[in-house]
Amino acid sequence: MNVKKQLTEGLITNNPVLVQQIGLCATMAISTTLFNGLGMGLSVLIILTCCNVVISAIRKIIPEQVRLAIFVVVIAGFVTIVDLVLKAFIPALSESLGVFIPLIVVNCIIIGRAEAFSSKESIALSFRDGVFQGLGYTCVLILMCLFRELLGSGTIGGGLLNGANSFLTLDGTGAGIRIIPEGIGAGALTLPFGGFLTLGLLMAVMQYALRKNGEKKARKEKEGKE
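Above: the chain sequence. Below: its structure as tokens.
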């Protein structure tokens, strides 16, 4: 499997959220600001990549009967490391994400890739799979955050950008850059309902694009045979 194919799968054709439809709970819950979305996405990317590498490295010595239990132990170890690092260096992000960082232990994206890919493939392929699947997850989170924050609150980069001086901040206090005048945004998008709506729209767009692409390829193959 080449790099281009793995990248395409992670971002588009096998995107963990929009195509595989796993890890949806955290995706909808924390995608309210760019600060949360970027932090959660990068955390999952790091944990997924590290777990893939370790599981691939020990796959041949893992007893079949306890493989899932070992996967969970490996994942829990890296989740604990990331959780402690966030608490030490970015406490605002740790507090904002709350229980969703520890819950990465049972995130279906990480367990699913461990079972379906890294437990069967080489370390190099598993490393790339972790990076590209993590990027796909992160990109979806960022899109959802930008959409919900912009149309719901009228800002972009809440918690991460300071609107007055346009500089990055990691203390979660950034007001964001205001695009839409205050009071005009659709506040419902910042509520749980907004997460369901935004995710549903993105899924619909992705499925439509994949179907059109499939139809286009089928037409080309048919024309080639004729």
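The chain has a mean pLDDT of 89.
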